[in-house]
Amino acid sequence: CHIPSALGVILRTTDKIVWANEFEPIELTCLIESISTNNPRIEWKKIKDGIPSYVYFQNKIAGDLENRAQLREPANILIFNTTRSDTAEYRCEVAAIDDQRDFDEILISLAVRVKPVVPRCSVPEAVTVGTSTELRCLENEGFPAPQYRWFHNNEELPQDPKNSPRFVNFSYTINPDTGSLKFRRVRKEDAGEYYCQAKNDAGHAQCPTQVMEVYDVDIIGIVLKCLGGVSVVIILMAFLCSIRRMCLQYKCHNENHYNWPTQNNGVEYADADEVNKIGKEMIHLFPSISIVLYIYIYI
């Protein structure tokens, strides 16, 4: 049943859901609309993850808000510099022993916005015309989660290029929630400087500019492949030369029917069984070059 205001304490607040920017002041209102008791007991509790703790108790600020807040008449609490850890629910409780309805409480939800920090951006240094590529942007500190925007040569890329006459021929897509910028087919005009901006209601931050170059031909890939091919050829030729020298030494040994001493010139010659054994082992290990090896040895 309804109790007349003169017989009980009644509380109200101007905002049950309060947003604040980090490091800025915010006031949580607990207004006493009706009370008969001259000196009511006022308490504030912070409820984080379902666990309550005092932030105003026995007429003084306590707990997480100590030295960072004050009580303002009639029962409001002013936080001087909010931090992200202040995001929680706060309960104002007023007890009036001389009132028929001697207790009332009100619950307020506080959410602290956090400005994004500098995002991490990933831009390829070089891509080939006609290929696909992706640029990435990520920021983990901002609250609420930021939206992402990409800039090319200091000009913002519209989220949908088809809606802009200047970018209608571009073949990219932007995901503002994940920070992804994808090119389906890279063009020469896509070369240039890129940076990403992460933004929410508390502010914005952007990563340093990075340059993406666009080539007609994959010059880097060709150079690396050539260097790799030259290395393989050099190693193979050295290997073949060593085997051929051993075999020539063995032929000379058989033609002269003479066992060359190892003491005269310091060279140690292998016998026929040893050469055959080495040849079979090499062919077993490298079957792909067996034909080349035999042709080269017996030229």
From TrEMBL:
PROSITE patterns: IG_LIKE
Localization terms from the record: Cell junction, Tight junction; Cell membrane
Membrane topology: Single-pass type I membrane protein
TM region(s), chain numbering: 219-241
A biological-process GO annotation: cell adhesion
Organism domain of life: Eukaryota
Gene Ontology CC entries for this record: bicellular tight junction; plasma membrane
InterPro entries: Ig-like_dom, Ig-like_dom_sf, Ig-like_fold, Ig_sub, Ig_sub2, JAM-C
Alphabetical UniProt keywords: Cell junction, Cell membrane, Disulfide bond, Immunoglobulin domain, Membrane, Signal, Tight junction, Transmembrane, Transmembrane helix
Domain Ig-like: start-end pairs: 4-109, 116-212
Pfam families, per the entry: Ig_3 (PF13927)
GO molecular function per UniProt: protein heterodimerization activity; protein homodimerization activity
Protein family per UniProt: Belongs to the immunoglobulin superfamily.
Xref: PANTHER family: JUNCTIONAL ADHESION MOLECULE 3A, JUNCTIONAL ADHESION MOLECULE C
Protein name: Junctional adhesion molecule 3
